[in-house]
Amino acid sequence: MTSQASSYAARQVPRYTSYPTAPHFTGGVDAALYRRWLSELDGDEPVSVYVHVPFCAELCLYCGCQTTVTRSPAPVLAYVDLLLRELELVGKALPGRKRLSHLHFGGGTPTILDMSDFRRLMAAIRANFDIEADAELAIEVDPRTISPAHAATLVEAGINRVSLGVQSFDPLVQKTIRRRQSFELTSRVAEWFRFAGVEGLNLDLMYGLPHQNVANVLSTVHQALSLDPDRIALFGYAHVPWMKRHQALLPEAALPGSEERAAQFEAAAARILAAGYVRLGLDHFAKPDDALCLSARAGELRRNFQGYTTDGAKALIGLGSSAISRLPQGYAQNAATVAPYRSALSSNGLATARGVPLTPQDNLRAGIIERLTCDFSVDLAALCRQHGFEIGELDDDLGRLQPMVRDGLAIRDGARINVAPAAQDLVRVISTAFDQRFVAQLSRHSPAV
């Protein structure tokens, strides 16, 4: 990486899993407005659903998720009852029974749920939605929480895609981040799910963790590839101790710098590509015949809070504390922690705490940023026509982009913008040119690479 590219890589920029991004959410979106938005959804359009489970048996120090450590089943059981209550309230707010095209359980650790509670929850989802025959039903899995019977139950309940959390197989890295998980355990869990008949197996890896270097990242990638996953996500660790205080327990002196982080990603990506996978956007890789690749080739790859997805639903309904819903009218986020979430539902109200309505300009820029981060290319004229704008609407944006064109990050061909092949890792930086709300000196985000 050149010194100029390194200066861009060190910039703190949003991850752009939404636009506008979460720091711009306000209390102006409340339960009443969210209920109205739900009632206005097109009755013929399918929806997707995200279920957040904010509990873990222990806290991994790298974690940036909204979660709480519990060793008792009681809080988890009580939380399932709250999810069932929220499902009932959401179902009543919708304009009739909806089709469900995509379901994702995230956390925290969704597999901390007792299997009888998971079956209850799935039964309630089926009672409120018509799950389409080809719907993707996915769950994030901590391999340390799974047994063969557990894996079989998840698949019997309808789960057809699992994402196994790995991060790193290096013993020193695991000890430092407080996540001890052997390759042998992960391999056994993958076998259990395959034996149970799961259709898709994903692995989640990380770079940029304390004590990681190119050699041990490549070792982890080599072991991960031996499990023959359908998809690999290669996330950069986001060190944000001002937001996640437990991250301050990590040794900052052992964190790799921006050049080393970039070298780790580039080496890992090259190894995954050499194994026959296709790169998708910033940090995902998939086998050529995977649905993600087919979606990308059709120009239909999407990006949301769960990463890259084939989910084409216009409405994503978030359930659980801190869960974010994305509707055509805007974003709505539930209360961040369980206590206010419980209080809102106990008062027979939805748990919406904040959000942001979408303006026509937001929709235009969201479309531009999504295409850049999914395709590394965007036709600005086509998107302006689609959203009812003249290309002149983007004059200021193109002015902000010009230094990046000059520095070789982006290539402008009339109204088409392409990310330079050598600068694909910096697409989040390029996206800031089209982010009207981004003010670098007032924002604290993760590094670009």
SSE map:
Layout: H1 3-9, E1 12-13, H2 31-39, E2 47-53, E3 55-56, E4 68-69, H3 73-93, E5 98-107, H4 115-128, E6 129-141, H5 148-156, E7 161-167, H6 171-177, H7 183-196, E8 200-207, H8 214-225, E9 231-236, H9 258-274, E10 278-280, E11 284-286, H10 291-297, E12 302-304, E13 307-309, E14 315-319, E15 324-327, E16 330-334, H11 338-346, E17 352-357, H12 360-375, E18 377-379, H13 380-387, H14 395-406, E19 410-413, E20 416-419, H15 427-431, E21 446-447
Parallel strand pairs: 2-5, 2-14, 3-4, 5-6, 6-7, 7-8, 8-9
Antiparallel strand pairs: 1-21, 9-11, 10-11, 12-13, 15-16, 16-17, 18-20, 19-20
Walk me through this protein's architecture:
The chain has 15 helices and 21 strands. Helix 12 (360-375) packs antiparallel against helix 13 (380-387). The chain is 37% helix and 23% strand. A nine-stranded mixed sheet has the order 10-11-9-8-7-6-5-2-14, with helices on both faces. Strands 15-16-17 form a three-stranded antiparallel sheet, covered by helices on one side. The termini are close together. With 449 residues, it is an alpha/beta fold. Helix 5 (148-156) links the parallel strand 6 and strand 7.
